[in-house]
Amino acid sequence: MGAAGDDRMQGGSDRDVLSGGDGDDTLNGQKDYDTLMGGDGRDRFNSFDSTAVVNELFALPDELFTAIDRVRNG
After folding, report:
1. Are 40 and 23 in contact (CB under 8 A)?
2. Lower Cβ count inside 10 Å, N or C end of the chain?
3. Beta strand pairing status for 26-29 and 8-11?
4. Distance CA 72, CA 44 (A)
């Protein structure tokens, strides 16, 4: 959780989260369920899969990801 500028996270597993309170935040996710929650519009997101979430307004609860997994896996 970054409260200052230039926060960076490189996640190699699922459910990586970077919560930046200001600009210039970067999340490089290599697996699914990567989330970037930025307080402004200068955040960068690089993902190697199709299940990335860029959320500028609110944090998504972990229960949501669990529910999605259950629906996908039956």
Report:
1. yes
2. C
3. parallel
4. 28
Cα separation of 24 and 20, whole Å?
Answer: 9
Three-state SS across the chain? CECCCCCEEEECCCCCEEEECCCCCEEEECCCCCEEEECCCCCEEEECCCCCEECCCCCCCHHHHHHHHHHHHC
- Please compute the mean of the pLDDT values over residues 1-9 and round it to a whole number: 49
pLDDT (tens digit per residue) in 30-64: 555 555 555 555 555 555 555 555 555 455 667 77
Residue with tokens 């997101």: 45
Across-strand partners of 2?
20
Global confidence as pTM:
0.29
